Amino acid sequence: MTYTNQNASILAKKSSQIKSQIRTFFDSQGFLEVETPIMVKIPGMEPHLEVFETTLEMPSTLENQTPKSLYLNHSPELQMKKLLARTEKDPEFGKIYNMGKVFRNGEFDGDTHNPEFTMLEWYRYDSDYTEMMSDCENLIAHLTRRSPELVYQDKKIDLVHPFPRKTVNELFIEYTAIDLNEHKSYESLKEKALALDLPIASCHTWDDIFFTIFMNEIEPHLGKTKPIFVYDYPASQAALAKKSDTNPFFAERFELYIGGMELANAYSELIDEEEQRTRLIDEQNQRKSLKKTIFDIDEEFLNSLKSIKKPCSGIALGVDRLIMLLTDTKSIEDLLLFPINHILKN
Amino acid sequence: METTTTIRKGQAINFKNGTWIITEAQFVNPGKGSAFTRCKLKNMKTGQVVENTFKSGEAVELVNVQMQKCQFLYKDHEGYNFMNNDSFEQFQLSEEVLGNDGKWLLENTELYATYIEGTPIGVQLPPKMDFRVIESPPGLKGDTATGGTKDVKLENGVMIKAPLFIKEGDMVKVNTEDGSYVSKAN
Question: What is this structure's pTM?
């Protein structure tokens, strides 16, 4: 059911308990909770994300008085990986987590988006993305007290382990009979989308067509009766992830869907400095062509990758969406005490 | 035909060989891709409801639709009968067209009829309507803070879930899209 104003305090209390149980889950496994800044110089290079810009005024003690543009962070990802890179010198940083606010400009007016929201990220040194899948299963089990099922919006979701796992390409073949390996070019995938009668006149890239097919033909089926790990995304949509050894068209990235909601996004982290530079420059160019704010390449981040000697993995999980699932709340606007639509109206 | 790249609730569009009204439009963003608008579309002829997700900025053909105030008169074996409040012209829509919406109609309910090129092809229910509760089992004591609900019967015969404090004879506001309880009405 939808929580009304009269039980807002009950929902607020449940949210607070869930966040404290999340911390217990990680603390008890020896993870270190780290804080990362909300204001940063480089908030991440994802081509499509819009940013909030703010201005830092300089104190009179400094020689350079020019105010500096800072941005509200999209995700603590770059800071987390810089900390993870200290592991060889200080093993305490080998398992870290962070729970805090992140910001995406222009993203609201739907059940699952608010321009500021709470993100949980955790990272493991000497690990890959399959370990992140186990972490997700264990975290959900911890938060549901090992309940075998969950009811969300009148639909029963089976939580028995292991959660099903399917590659993106398996899902494309299952729901659309399109094998992405045979349609790696824009023209070829476009032809397939047109055959499905999808509106794609404004899709100018392969990824735009990919998403139009995915959002219409595949995503509506995901995680409805059981959670699902959707893994191995096209490498063009995972600039910070390691490419698959067996098929480098795809990268070791997964998303966890529960109850139709995209809940978490994880990578086997890309730790090769040169390849990372190339892929960040590629994203920077995409931002230029989309006329988005341009950020510098984060040299401190690239430099830190040199200190990483073993494979690493990391994940970002939307805490508000997780709480919506666990409290059977339909919309993020019902969960947050001050969603952006409320702020705009009052 | 006029086109638009800003897809919003309430617009009528030509899509997949039909005319559809957008009954729901939500912002969604897959994170690593561009933004999308997830829509529920209702076919203006058949009442069929489908979902489609449009890339933000996608151009769609707009249909010029007129909304005119009308009231519901009565239902007979051929369908639902309405009167246009301005022209006093009467018209009928089939059960198939009204679909699930039909159950919310009470005599004299005022609502908007949708006309395409002068022909009434459907009605838009008010998103929230008031109904009297005619049957309500007594609530369980001391359970009002947990968000508990019970099944109550409305004057139109529809059963809905309502909070425990709702009594027989109360007026309640109901969401006509999903039949959910909104609040107590005055």
Answer: 0.81
